[in-house]
Amino acid sequence: MSTDTAGRALAGRIAAFVEDAIAPIASAMARGDGPSPKRIVEAAGEAGLAGILTPEAYGGAGGSHADFIEFIERVAHADASCAVILDVHLSVGTEPLLIFGNDDQKSRYLRRLARGEWLAAFALTEAAGGSDAVALQTRAVRDGDTYVLDGAKAFITGAGDADLYIVMARTGEGAHGVSAFLVEAAWPGVSTGTPLAKMGLHGSWTGELVLDGVRVPAVNRLSGEGVGFTVAMSALDSGRVGISAQAVGIAQGALDAALDASRRRRDAGLDVDAVAIADMEVRTAASRQLTRHAAALVDAGRRVTLDAAIAKLYSTDTCVAVAHAAVELCAPESGADDHPAAVRLRDAKACQIYEGTNQIQRVVIARHLLND
Ligand code: COS
User: Fold this and answer.
1) pLDDT per residue over 83-122, tens digit each?
2) For ligand 1, what atom is nearest to the CA of residue 363?
3) Which of 91, 188, 213, 278 could, after both became Cys, cross-link 239 (CB 3.0–4.6 A)?
4) pTM of the predicted model, to two decimals?
5) How far apart (Å, rounded) are the C-alpha atoms in residues 316 and 109?
6) Coil, strand or helix: which one is 221?
């Protein structure tokens, strides 16, 4: 945001959106019978928040990564499914277009994404390769003015509801033989499977994307041939900061539930576990600072690979630990499926897994240190 006034206006829009559009549907999202991901992004668009990072010239809010993480944390505090839907749309779904897109690609797609008319998704992972992203096998074969894409992507957030997929496909060998493509869901040969039945995040759709002889115009290749792995890795660098923010929101929601239960115990003359509460607060506050630090680096134009990995690892381990502690402090009520602490524990686990498992974050951190 360019001015304090504009920043305050955006913060006000975020608070109103969470209160009016997210909080009322949080229970339904947790059960998996809330609005579809696209409808969540449409609602964000109506509030002027579906393109927080997109310049105003392309219909976005022209916000910073500091604004973005504030948005994701606040949404996650109310509902983690909505947070991941919006996070993926805004970060790995839109940012590669902002960073690597040419003017023609930006003018064809950014406005629809920023207004929430289209939902964006990011398609890197494949079932056989898992965390080994370089092992991807989806092929893109050049044929005149088009590429023909064949392959299947797995665990794709938004699959089945997205309008635009950023697809990484092989145009050569190794990491430098990967290219990124903007693939519209409506094109012949694009299909999706049934969304996975997950342990948590029931309101967010996750599934397979199948590409069967999909003809993608060459003008929809994002950046140069062979630059796709760089596109994917830099998208994930910044995307992991968004996941950290989601984890902070989940942890804060779990801590708030534990505080409510602990105050009731105290008021009834029962003991409260002060040590557990203090530890939950310390880890949540530290996660928030790590996340803000990483977002500030992105806003300063600095490479964030190391700090994003640190923030993602710490914050997502924290949200699982804090949600677990909250379930214990809220027992026995937290044994209920729809108790806020139980919902958050189920939602928290996926944060350790997606956008690079926490084992991968450790690989990134250790390599960075050893290479220095
Ligand atoms: N930004 C820009 N470029 C990067 C990068 C980053 N963050 N990370 C790696 N690269 C580049 C490397 O510099 C290297 O290029 P050069 O050969 O020119 O040096 C190239 O990409 C290959 O990198 P590397 O040799 O490190 O690849 P590896 O296969 O050894 O491992 C990891 C890469 C493990 C970091 C990668 O596979 C990864 O992040 N996996 C997890 C994927 C993931 O997050 N999946 C979730 C998808 S979304 S739910």
Assistant:
1) 999 999 999 999 999 999 999 999 999 999 999 999 999 9
2) 34
3) 91
4) 0.96
5) 32
6) strand
